[in-house]
Amino acid sequence: MPTPLIFYGIDYSFRLNSYLWKTPIGWDRKRDRMTYDNSPPVKYFWWYFLVYVVFNGVGGASCVYTIYWQYYSPRKELNISHSIQYALQISAGGLAAGITLVVMIFGQHAVQVVNGVLDFHDLMKIYEITEEKIQVVNEKLNKRLAVVDRLFRRARIPSIFLPDGGLDWAGMILLAGLTVLHVVVLVIVPTTVLILRIDVYRWPLEDMWSYLNVDYETNPVVFLPEKQMATQTFFMMTSGLFFCAALNFATIRFLDFGMPPLYYAIWPFFAILLILMILSLLPVAINVYENSANILTIWGHSIPGGRKENAWLRKKLRSIRAPRVYSGFVGFYFYKLDASVLTTYFMSIQDWTINFLMTFHPSAEEINALTYGWQ
Fold it and tell me: Does this entry carry the keyword Transmembrane (predicted)?
């Protein structure tokens, strides 16, 4: 039968997971019952995206790639145990995808069944006959348990003892498991990625850099060589310009065409999200040059003596150029990112949005037909 310590362990687990992406299943700590949010899947888009795209798609593909090439061209850092771990990760990804699908389809029914079982247990407490537990006489153990129980009560955690005097083993095991699980994840993930460097994403990335003739071991900065970084910048800015203008167009054009609010909310939500991403990333690339140029200027003014003193150091500083981020394609640079690019970029988004609005003007009948088709 569920005990207060079990309920506390479940509630504590939900609180520890509160920083993660939200799921339809929740917990009501006041009633000690599960809840289910029967909202459209759009509300939990990021949870589905992480499970199906990141964990299963990208992670699963990396696991298959690593295991496959480990058979033909073994790596010194990996052994058979790592291949088994990657294979288990593929299975875990399939299990996570299946659980997510079950939650999506049968989650509300499952929550009703669980809450019904809990209600039944509460009802049966009225007819419960308390049996006296035979305790093993062990003074040292009893004193230690009493100390643990007092510490639990001071921390506002339910008692480890049952009303009949027995130990709540199920509650202690559940609370310890849920607590240790989060600590283990927070310790193992950074250790695997940063110290041991055996995360599954490492091997496809290293093979990709090797294919591009990038020496990633001599200098960590070489992870973004200049040409590849310019190409990535070009594609990111181009795709951002197109998608941002398209989302702005959809937000304005579909406002008065009777579209369901939850479907319409997709356009302004992602438009705002994309603008925030641009405002977060583009100034970083611009400040690479701005801050570096300011630092070189400060260094030049900080050289002691007159113009004739420390002449070599002055010439050395004048010859140093501040690093820049360019936008280009396979070594052909189109423009450099400076302070004027941010204003020009947003003006381009505005121009593209206006052009879309002037070019595409669907009739209300077409939009209504599309809307009814989604419903």
Answer: yes
Tokens of 138: 């062990």
Q: Is the pLDDT of residue 365 over 60?
A: no
Q: Where are the alpha helices (DSSP H) in the chain?
A: 4-16, 45-48, 60-72, 80-124, 139-154, 169-190, 202-211, 226-253, 261-264, 266-301, 311-319, 339-359, 364-374
Comparing CA positions, the residue from 124, 131, 157, 154 lying closest to residue 4 is 157
Half-sphere exposure (CA, 13 Å, Cβ side) for 298? 6
Highest mean pLDDT among 88-92, 218-222, 256-260: 88-92
pTM over 0.85: no
d(CA 249, CA 264): 12
Which domain, by its residues, includes 322? 226-374
Shared-domain flag, residues 14 and 63: yes
Say whether both 286 and 361 belong to one domain.
Answer: yes
**Do 11 and 84 reside in the same domain of the chain?**
yes
Q: 145: which 2 tokens?
A: 């348990």
**C-alpha R_g of the chain:** 30
